[in-house]
Amino acid sequence: MGWVLKKTIVMVGMMGAGKTSVGKAVAAQLGVAFRDSDAEIEAAANMSVADIFARDGEPFFRERETRVIRRLLEEEPCVLSTGGGAFLSARNRQMITDKGVSVWLNADLEVLWNRVRHRDTRPLLRTANPFATLSGLFEARVPIYAQADLSVISEAGCSVNDMGARVVRALE
Ligand code: S3P
């Protein structure tokens, strides 16, 4: 019999940390399915996350996010990338900790900013000073991400596959 993943690996961390791209690499390296909570929410609503925020507001999005994560954690173990805000709610953290293994992709502010600055897909960064906003979120969130089961440093020069391999090693 082959090797079996017992718990879902849940990627957490700031926007721009690489949760989706590294999560896909981890899933490929382990030979398991990859899921993404933002993508699931978008597919179900047939709308982008930015449009959901604009039309229905953040609390509505957060409800959807909790529901999607709860459902995915009930399914076959896989690699699950979550949106940057998902791990902040105590209720989500509890669910993730009970049913999965959380991995914080820990990138510094400069790396994050360089990755998100040219993309207009993040509703939370649609402010007069997106860097100040990102920096404020970073300060507030890092202590919460640090509660994840594992932490892997996401470096600027490290390829997605190398990052995936680092995560796989951390899981061993
Ligand atoms: C959010 C991050 C986004 C998305 C939404 C809110 C956040 O996901 O869920 O815009 O609160 O940090 P990514 O981390 O994949 O960008």
UniProtKB/TrEMBL annotation:
Entry binding sites for Mg(2+): T20
Main location: cytoplasm
Chain positions recorded as substrate binding sites: D38, R62, G84, R141
This protein's pathway: Metabolic intermediate biosynthesis; chorismate biosynthesis; chorismate from D-erythrose 4-phosphate and phosphoenolpyruvate: step 5/7
Localization in the cell: Cytoplasm
Top-level taxon of origin: Bacteria
CDD domains listed in its UniProt record: SK (cd00464)
Keywords from the named record: Amino-acid biosynthesis, Aromatic amino acid biosynthesis, ATP-binding, Cytoplasm, Kinase, Magnesium, Metal-binding, Nucleotide-binding, Transferase
Annotated positions binding ATP: G16, A17, G18, K19, T20, S21, R122
Function: Catalyzes the specific phosphorylation of the 3-hydroxyl group of shikimic acid using ATP as a cosubstrate.
Subunit structure comment from the entry: Monomer.
Name recorded for this polypeptide: Shikimate kinase
Source organism per UniProt: Pseudooceanicola albus
